[in-house]
Amino acid sequence: MLELQQLTKRFNRKAAIDEISLTLKQGEIVGLLGPNGAGKTTLIRIINRIIEPDSGTIRFKGDLMQQKHLAFIGYLPEERGLYKNMTVEAHAHFLGALRGMTKKDVNTALDYWLNKFDCQSWRKKRIEELSKGMAQKVQFICTVLHEPDLLILDEPFSGFDPVNVELIKQELVEMKAKGKTILISTHNMRSVEEICDRVILINQSKKILEGRVSQLQESLKTGEYAVKFRGTMIAFVNALWTGFELIDKEILGDDRYIARVKMRGDSSFEDLLKVLIGQVKIEAAWEVLPSMHEVFIQAVNNEQKVEA
C-alpha cells in the first residue's frame, strides 16, 4: 500500500527524519512509536504531502506518490482543526469536497456514520456547541467519510474517554478486516498491544526497531511466569524449592495471591505446575511477557546507550 525509501528531512541542518524506510501492507494496522520530538509527525506530514522531503521516495500502491493519491488517504492530525462556526454537516461537505466527493455521497456517508455513532442530533450543531470528545468524534468521521484505502491517525485516542477509545478501536479493526491499511502514531501503548499487527519505533530521527508486536515481546521476555493461587505463601515458597525463584507477590486477600517466579537451570513451566499441584490451589498461570511500554522504554534506552 505504501513504501517509503530513505526519506530524509532537515530543518536548519538538523535531521527531523534521517533515511527512514518502511513498508505498509494492505489490511494491517501499524503503530508508529517514538518519544516526543523523534520525528513521527514530520514523517506523517511528508506522507500527506504537507511538506516535501529533502531526499527519498514515497510510493503509493507501487506508483510514485502524487497529489491525486491523497484522495485515497484519510488523515487525522494531532492538532485538531475544525472550524468552530461551521455546523457538523457543513464541515463534512467542506472536507468531503476536498476529497472529490459529491454532496449526495457526503450525505449518504454522513448519515451512515452519525447513525453508527448514535449522534444524528449533532448534524445541525455548530462545532463550538460540541464537547471536546464530541468534536473529536466528528473529526474522526470526517477523516473516514470518503472511505480511504490508507488511514493515517496522529494520536487518535487523545481526548476520548475509555468508552469512546474502545469504540474507535473497534471501528479500526473492522476497517482492517475490509482491507484498509492503518498507520497510528500514538503513546497509548495498551491500544498498540490490542490492535496493531506491527510496530515501527523511531528515535532521534532514525528507525531503531520494527516487528510484529508478539515477536518484539517474545524477544525481550525474561523467563518469568505468574501464578494466581489460593493457599498460603509459605506453602507456595516451600514448593518452589531450588528450581524456581520468587520474584514478586501480590496479595489479593482471602488467602489468594499472584506470585511471579523465575526459572532456574533447566526447569520448565510444566515443572512449575507439577511442584505446586497439591500444595496450593492454582487458579491461573501464565508466561509474563513485557508490555509494549516496556519494549518502548528498553529500545529507547538501548539506543541512547549506543549513541553515548
Per-chain topology:
Blueprint: E1 2-11, E2 14-24, E3 29-33, H1 40-47, E4 55-60, E5 63-64, E6 73-76, H2 88-98, H3 103-116, H4 132-144, E7 150-154, H5 162-177, E8 181-185, H6 189-195, E9 198-203, E10 206-212, H7 213-219, E11 224-230, H8 233-240, E12 244-253, E13 256-263, H9 269-276, E14 281-287, H10 292-307
Parallel strand pairs: 3-8, 3-9, 6-7, 7-8
Antiparallel strand pairs: 1-2, 1-4, 4-5, 9-10, 11-13, 11-14, 12-13
Helix pairs in contact: 2-3, 2-4
Strand content: 25-35%
Number of individual domains:
2
The Cα radius of gyration reads 24 Å
CATH topology of the largest domain: Rossmann fold
Task: Quickly give the CATH architecture of the largest domain.
Answer: 3-Layer(aba) Sandwich
CATH homology group of the largest domain: P-loop containing nucleotide triphosphate hydrolases
User: How many DSSP-defined strands?
Assistant: 14
The termini sit apart by 37 Å
Given this structure, which CATH class of the largest domain is correct? Alpha Beta
Element-by-element helix/strand order: EEEHEEEHHHEHEHEEHEHEEHEH
- Structural class of the secondary structure composition? alpha/beta
The pLDDT mean sits at 87
Q: So how many helices?
A: 10
Main sheet properties? 6 strands, mixed
As residue ranges, the low-confidence spans are none
Share in helix = 25-40%
Principal-axes geometry comes out as globular
